Amino acid sequence: MDKITVTSPLLPDLDEFHELLKDIWDRKWITNNGTLHRQLEQELASYLKVPYISLFTNGTLPLITALQALHITGEVITTPYSFVATTHSIWWNGARPVFVDIDPATGNIDPDKIESAITPQTSAIMPVHVYGKPCDVKRIKEIADRYNLRVIYDAAHAFGVEQDGKSILEWGDLSTLSFHATKVYNTIEGGAMVMHDAEMKQRIDYLKNFGFAGETEVVGPGINSKMDEIRAAYGLLNLRQVDSAIAARRAIAEKYADAIRDIPGISTFPYMAAMGTADEDHSLRHNFAYFPIFVDEAQYGMSRDELYFKMKEHDVLGRRYFYPLISSFSTYRSLPSAHPANLPNATRLADTVICLPIYHDLTDEQVMRVIDLIRK
Ligand SMILES: *Cc1c(COP(=O)(O)O)cnc(C)c1O
Q1: Is the pLDDT of residue 376 over 90?
Q2: Whether residue 4 has pLDDT greater than 80
Q3: Helix, strand, coil tally for the chain in percent (to 5)
Q4: Cβ(156) to ligand 1 under 6 A?
Q5: So what's the pLDDT on residue 336?
Q6: What is the mean pLDDT of residues 287-316?
Q7: Would you state the pLDDT for residue 282?
């Protein structure tokens, strides 16, 4: 039987891509804010309903650059239940990550636990919209305003996510996106930063080009993270099909949600379980980037790892995402906030999660194969 991977990249039509490549070859302008780079920024700003966006070569450099641009030092409050790049970006800026536990109903940082982690050294909060589910953005803003902290959202999972008709990327001082091949929308490698005003956009555009403001002036310790024309072309084409990819993902998520309802010991987040039912929260425009399930060993009769390896044996590749927690990697585990006793919810989710295969061209038959395997 064919192998079912956890994800599969959304690819543009090869002939259309070739047409755009011919234009690039004619222009002989292949990077440094080219025509397609500018066009993709415009089209993304409009698609995402945000005023300003700056393209990057991946989703990690905008995180690093965001902290740099806001002069973040001291301590940064963040979540251990994320991809390791979130915490790495804090470390790369010479600041100290402080881990706070998550809300088990969403996987997102628990606002109730943020305040007790704030110290005189705290300068920012870096939450993650885990699996594309919006954080409690209002509560986080209240706390940040009260303590004069900056908020940088790692929105790598939240492409196209809206709450009440507004982009989730509008919250926080800055938000960052990843356009990696494994994400809902991809430019092979790529990413972006979303900001509120033209002045910040200008500053970020300088910083991602070594800090150059004109030929001879350097305004800050910049980095090189410019997206090239070839990936901008690829991104323009993928933008045209991302809505249908999200619709296909939704149909799969609804099938999974429906199926696991009757499997004792297998659950997902309540918001995900409600997708396609009368309880669905219609104020949320979700992107179905991931479909996490949680395995209760006692009830299910098999541990998460047993199920994960059984799936693998049958050529169905899930992903234990996020496992291990960032706070348990050797680089970070000696931090006082990294102790598992400080992070019970994150620890439990990391120990029980499997993200199921979900992508635009996963067939009904493949979805049934995944479901049958979990049913035993
Ligand atoms: C993918 C991802 C990143 C990193 O993005 P890259 O484009 O791979 O550099 C950062 N944070 C989260 C939460 C991610 O999922």
Answers
A1: no
A2: yes
A3: 40, 15, 40
A4: yes
A5: 96
A6: 98
A7: 96
Alpha helix positions (H), the chain: 14-27, 35-48, 61-69, 85-92, 137-147, 198-207, 229-260, 270-273, 297-300, 304-313, 344-352, 364-375
Quick check: 143 and 149 in contact, CB under 8 A? Answer: yes
Nearby residues of 211 by Cβ (< 8 Å), 6 or more positions away: 218, 219, 220, 221, 222
Closest ligand 1 atom number to CA of residue 189: 7
223: region left, alpha or beta (phi > 0 left; psi from -120 to 50 alpha): beta
Q: How far is the CA of 24 from the centre of ligand 1 (A)?
A: 28
Cα dihedral 57, 61, 62, 67, rounded to 10, equals -160
Looking at the domain 14-239, which fold is it?
Aspartate Aminotransferase; domain 2 (3.40.640)
Model confidence pLDDT, tens digit, residues 43-70? 999 999 999 999 999 999 999 999 999 9
CB-ligand 1 contact for 157 (6 Å cutoff): yes
Superfamily of chain region 242-318+356-375: Aspartate Aminotransferase, domain 1 (3.90.1150.10)
Two structure tokens written together for 92: 């790369």
> What DSSP state is assigned to residue 133?
P
**Residue of 56, 57, 83 to test ligand 1 pocket, by largest number of atoms within 8 Å of CB:** 83
% of the chain surpassing 90 pLDDT = 99
Is any atom of ligand 1 closer than 6 Å to the C-beta of 191?
Answer: yes
